[in-house]
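User: I've been going back and forth on whether these two constructs are worth ordering. Before I decide, could you fold them both?

Assistant: Sure. I'll take them in the order you sent them. The first construct and its structure tokens:
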Amino acid sequence: MTPQQRRIAARRRPRQVRAELTRERILTAAAHVFTTYGYAAGTTNRIAEEARCSIGSLYQYFPNKDAILAELLTRHLGQGAAPLTSGEDVGDQPLEELVRAMVRTAIANHRDDPRLLRLFMEEAPRAGAVMTKIEAYQRGRMLRFRDLLVRHPEVGVEDTEAAAQIVTTTLELMVHALSAAPDRIPARRLENELTTMITAYLRGR
């Protein structure tokens, strides 16, 4: 583990329900503090106060606020990858349903708390280790999607790795941009349009 990775590594994984609840309270409080005061002013003292725990308790779980941001980001990315890690036999599901699940999850992630998402986008590039974590997740998600495309009988594109990169990147950028627009497209309409576009591309038509 590099010094940067150690800086954002969580210190303690709770084994008891009470400890897990404390950790969850810290993360929930951090999300509120970061979106209310901004990342620079969102100190660990403010987070501890919001979480109703001592600063010493907070430091038992996270060494600094970068580690808290990294954990929040990991959860966000993990939710976005959920449709690709269900473990189901993808060959038994229509391609359009699989694409729709990806699109729906991406939209939900962006619209649940746009202020927190904006924080991720603005602050992550400033922390090298956090950015490394993002890149690792994006690479892993792309590879899982590529493997899905290789196995699915409806996929007609020749280069599945290129297709996986194009789809995952395009989906992330488009949903982020359109969700932040002042005259944003209704979620259901956006889901339908993106699903139709991506499905047609993957079928090779």
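The second construct, handled the same way:
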Amino acid sequence: MNEFVGTLIRLSGSALNSRVTVGDVVNVLFALSLLALVALVLLVHEGIESRRSREALRGHAPREAHHGWLRHRH
């Protein structure tokens, strides 16, 4: 994470000195995409958990919850 912050500082100061390498840009893009992926996984997981808890409250016990999307086909 410190490397990521250092790279960001170097990129933000690149107007003064253009010493930014392709590796720096790739590192920042990789770190940002990794953060986005983690956020997406957490959001999807939250959505699944809240849907399961709502179904359990309505009396639809998560009998077939482990089937995922297959549950809606039968």
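Notes on the second construct follow. The CA atoms of residues 13 and 47 lie 40 Å apart. The chain has a mean pLDDT of 75.
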